[in-house]
């Protein structure tokens, strides 16, 4: 599976956030949306990534971006993660990896020489018309907001 490319239409996703609310692509029509996929709540790199976005949230909002995080963690884990780190944006609990796979953010990874399938840390900037404007494949957790706005 490969990541969606710049210039293609974003998948018409729908998923449940940490509070059980349904969030869909159509909710962001006319807005710029940043959808970021990350492997797991409360792991060091993922925590650095969401905290960087939290710390730069006002700047991202001023630049016209809405943020939406996605992982395969449960809504309860997301609630705890949001509360622990005071995150100002919703997190989709994609426990079936439907949205993850639709964006191509699922694939082969390697850790300590061992290969396995999992979520590929990646970010998609979707324009006001639902087209993918930018794809960030090599996310730098501590510089993620700069990558989005750069």
Write the topology of this structure.
Elements: E1 14-16, E2 22-24, E3 32-37, H1 44-55, H2 57-62, E4 65-71, H3 75-85, E5 91-93, H4 98-102, E6 106-111, E7 114-119, E8 122-126, E9 132-136, H5 144-149
Parallel strand pairs: 3-4, 4-5
Antiparallel strand pairs: 1-2, 3-8, 6-7, 8-9
Describe the model.
This protein has 150 residues and is an alpha/beta fold. The chain has a single domain (14-149), classed as Glutaredoxin. 27% of the residues lie in helices and 29% in strands. It is built from 5 helices and 9 strands. A hairpin with a 5-residue loop joins strand 8 (122-126) and strand 9. The radius of gyration is 14 Å and the shape is globular. The two termini are 27 Å apart.
CATH topology: Glutaredoxin
Spatial separation of the terminal alpha carbons: 27 Å
Q: Low-confidence runs (pLDDT<50, min 5 residues)? A: none
CATH architecture: 3-Layer(aba) Sandwich
The global form is globular
- Spell out the CATH superfamily: Glutaredoxin
Summarize this entry quickly.
The chain is an alpha/beta fold and 150 residues long.
What would the keywords be for this entry?
27% helix, five-stranded mixed β-sheet, alpha/beta, Glutaredoxin, 150 residues
